[in-house]
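Subject: complex prediction, re-run

Hi both,

The earlier run crashed halfway through, so I resubmitted it with identical inputs.
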Amino acid sequence: MTARLPPVIGEWIDRSRPIEFTFEGRSQRGFAGDTPTSALWASGTHVLGRSFKYHRPRGVLSMANHDVNALMQYGARLNLRADVEALEPGMALTAVNTQGGVGADRLRVLNFLGGFLPVGFYYKAFHRPKALFPFWERVFRRIAGLGSLDFTAPHIRTPKRYDFCDILVVGAGPSGLKAALAAGRAGAKVVLVDENARIGGSLGYQRGGSGEAMDLLADLECELAALPNVSVRPATLAAGWYADHWIPLVDAKRMTKLRARAVVVAGGAYEQPAVFRNNDAPGVMLASAAQRLLYRYAVKPMDVALILTANADGYRAALDLLAHGVAIAAVVDLRPDGESTALTAQVKQVGIPVLKGHCVFEAESVGGHLVAATVCPLGANDRPETSSPQKFACDGLVMSVGWVPAAPLLYQAGAKMRYDTATHQFVPETLPEGVFACGRVNGVHARDARLEDGERAGSEAARALGFEVAPRTFAIAAEPSPPSHPWPIVEHPSARNFVDFDEDLQVKDFLDAIQEGFDNIELLKRYSTVGMGPSQGKHSNMNAIRILARARNQLPGEVGTTTARPFYHPVPLSHLAGRGFNPQRETPLHSRHDGLGAVWMQAGVWLRPEYYAAPGKRKSEIVREEVRAVRESVGVIDVGTLGKMELYGPDAGQFLERVYTARFANMKPGTTRYAVMLEEGGVVIDDGVVGRIAEQHFYFTTTTTGSGTVYRELQRLNAMWNLEVGIVNATGAFAAVNLGGPRSRAVLRKLTGLDLSNEAFPYLALREGEVAGVPSRLMRVGFVGELGYEIHVPADRAAHLWDAILEAGTDCGIRPFGVEAQRLLRLEKGHIIIGQDTDGLTQPDEAGLEWAVKMDKPFFVGKRSVEIVRKRGLRQKLVGFEVDPAGAMPAPRECHLVIRNGAIAGRVTSVAWSDTVGKHIGLAFVAPDMTTAGTPFFVRVDGGTMVQARVVPTPFHDPAGARQKAVE
Amino acid sequence: MKLLACPINGLRPVSEFAYGGEVRPMPDAASCTDREWADYVFNRSGVPGVKVEWWYHIASGTWFLAERDTLADRVLRSWLPGDP
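This time it finished cleanly. Structure:
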């Protein structure tokens, strides 16, 4: 048996390319251009899926991407919309969410248990006893749900495409085509998209039994083709609206991010179902679905149709069906006066009975096939008068009772919509700048009027962008008959009159929910889950609004709509998945570290060696060796990740005095000074070393993680203060290494002609000279607490310098050391790390940095706050501590709490085992009265054990600093 | 994605920019009360309306000022500090 018609003008199928596929294991045939649904319907398969909750058989509803009960799975591709997905050869399709197949789904028993599953049942039941909840959860996870995930499916990442245009026209129906033509003729660069495989919209399938619409479409296509500045893109979905007309265009392959200067929304309207008992039976479908089956796929939707209508479109659908051999049992018109236009006569002329003021009370199906429908007169209050039913045998029931504007993009763009009582739909009241609407979405339904409206919108959009177009005035004429019915809903004592096909919600569910107090549209949505299924309410929200409005005695406009968010249809995650674009920086010595076995760690955006791995040795062992090398001989570390800034100009000294807490104006060229930066609240945010190279030239470092933000803020302050200084971020231009250890001077001496004697190059001095033939800036620093030199060189010479240093240090046993060793070395000296030993509230006094804060300066950022905070006294203080007895286990770790008398008195910020000291040492914030050396306290370590510790003065190692100031 | 006009680079997507906060006059640190200072440091006005803000074009390192209607989310104009 086949319902395939002889060739129909304009059909989308290619009869020369048959396609074999399977559905639920059975072989099927179709043609290229078919969808699974159209091919199955042509072969007489009407049960295409099972409903979400009651597992009722479902067939065609819309053929417009809203048939969420005909979701299918093909391998790893799940929840394919069978009504619109292109049929491919060899597809092995199954309906989702069945047990035992779509025909004999065992879960169909749920249809008879509906009484036990009232609206909101999962909010009410199954919470007690609590122990049983995991059981129920497993049960529901098996029963509910859609397609099943294939975890072995490949990860697909799709690059995005970017595009630009003047005017984007969304929807290529009559109004959209006209809008694109008008804008294109004005000279604008136009992109016209339509989610359907071909353009034309309703011109292609709402023909009213005549060839006129197709001729018109052919003309419009011809005119468009003559405009090279109009790009026509079928099978492309404008999936959302983002600020400043930034529209994701989704096609089968990828997402294109299109920036338009103006958007014309000509998205049309979604046809809406009527609500009556068994309105979900396969065979009951929207009129536009029947017309799409006819004209797109040349499939006869049914043999005998009953038409349920409330507008002119239903009469045209009757003529379309009739023209292709479908017998029409009757036209049932909800309106007491029926259709006022000539269409009534046209229909009656061919012998079709028209029942005005009637409704379909219930549909009847046998084995998943519609067999009959019962029609009643509509009485007062829109209630069916069941005393005089008429039964019509039919295998198809065609509904044409109303339309909802496809307005999600308008809502997202911020359009204000109002409910129009002439058309009984929401229409745009005010549109945001650069957004235009035309056609059905604008409440214009008659075809000629839609063409006019499209022309107007296209011209207006072009004019708004400055293209020269004569202004068009077009007053929207009143519709000859309202396209939507205000109450296409028929109550039934036995229910099963579905409002939402995604979630199997019936009229009574809404009435119950409203009764229970969920009488606001947003609450009703969340409680009943209306519009929360895969179709996102495209065929259910309007009827839900109508039910709520009637229950509250209001107009739909007063009830309002729920929020429309992007995306407008589901988009495959593989379209969205792409590459991450987080920057990651490597120093010029990266490959050298790799060669030495560096184990990498992330430091801000940088990769730094944590330590250098050696076969057969554990990390702790290696770090101790690296530390010992520095303490006893010499080590070298890449510190090229430090922020490195150049500051020039007559006001350079003054600028530094304003941004840092110390004094710089009085520094002599050739010296360096420690620098602390505060924010306006007095919180320590960064530190570094400032070196003065010349009177008007400073070179200074920032922390590794802070370099970007510090540079940015310095630029802002410079822009604000307007001092005569220039700042250059030289972080990437320079590489830097720190050569530290008692024998560092001996190593360096081999590489430079500079006088390294303590008199010529004392502690904290800065010198310029050549090291290993590379022009360098050298600073005598003491971060690790040994004699040491920070050597800054142009980045491209870094590898040469590194190699030369390692070679020169061979006989001293030089070791490259990593961040872990450096952290321990500085901890032994009690030097803090900003961000580790300070947090977002730490004042300089709390971190023991009072000495670096010069309050006698007239101004520096944060000074006023420090003054205020100082008046209040300290809240906490950073102190050194050691653990008693040595080697106590478990050892404290960072962020463990300091406990005194059972109460929290601070926290550990740094802690490590130190071979040098022979103990666990650390820094901790403690209460201000606990700072005296020897004060005991507990640290609460993992698992709750209390470990004894006591305050000790810092530095732990070489308190006098003799080593870093080493003369020889 | 929003577009923002950098006075140097023209209209660019907002992902190229960093927000620098509303431009707020700093009270005279020497003469203001502690309360006035604390108000300046900690309090920001969330009232929607037309505000002058600091914006930074990251790619080119340009700080500029922009007048923005935070209620309508519209940038009214932008200019370099020091320019009128």
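Strands of chain B lie at 3-6, 10-13, 17-22, 50-57, 62-69, 74-79.

- K.
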